[in-house]
Amino acid sequence: METIIITGLERVRELRPSKNGHTILAYFSADIGVFSFKGCVLVRTARQGIAAWLPRLEDPRSDRQRSVTLNDEPTRNALLKEAREMYIRMGGTEAEWRPREDEETADERETLT
């Protein structure tokens, strides 16, 4: 796994879900190994999860949303963890994990069986 350093983060002050249900919490920059990324996004997903997206690269020849991806799951998880922790240190309060409405707790599953 690569070393990850969040080099800057700007919280979004007025949180509004997009038409697809995602809410951008912050924009940030990160150094991942030998690469520097500017314009990354910390987002609450439509299903109430938290995600960190790499910058979007516009390419008129492609309909892909993200042209750069991290294929290494531990590195993706570390990027999310670092961005989330920086967001919270800067006073952000919307980065906690929230269960989805369609998820049952362990207690609920036990009472159903």
Jot down its keywords.
single chain, 113 residues, alpha+beta, 2 helices, 21% helix, 28% strand, disordered C terminus
Task: Please list the strands of the largest sheet in the order they lie side by side.
Answer: 1-2-3-4
Q: Structural class from helices and strands?
A: alpha+beta
- Percent helix: 10-25%
Total individual domains = 1
Biggest sheet descriptor:
4 strands, antiparallel
The averaged pLDDT comes out at 80
Query: Could you give the order of the helices and strands?
Result: EEEEHH
What is the overall silhouette?
globular
C-alpha Rg (nearest Å) = 16 Å
Number of strands: 4
The helix count comes to: 2
| Low-pLDDT ranges | 103-113
How far apart, in Å, are the first and last alpha carbons? 41 Å
Classify the beta-strand content into a percent band: 25-35%
In brief, what are we looking at here?
With 113 residues, this protein is α+β, with helices and mostly antiparallel strands. It has helices at residues 73-89, 106-112, and strands at residues 4-11, 23-32, 35-44, 50-53.
Structure in words:
With 113 residues, the chain is of the alpha+beta class. It has one domain. The chain is 21% helix and 28% strand. It has a four-stranded antiparallel beta sheet, covered by helices on one side. It is globular and about 30 Å long.
Explain the layout of strands and helices.
Blueprint (H helix, E strand, L loop, with lengths): L3 E8 L11 E10 L2 E10 L5 E4 L19 H17 L16 H7 L1
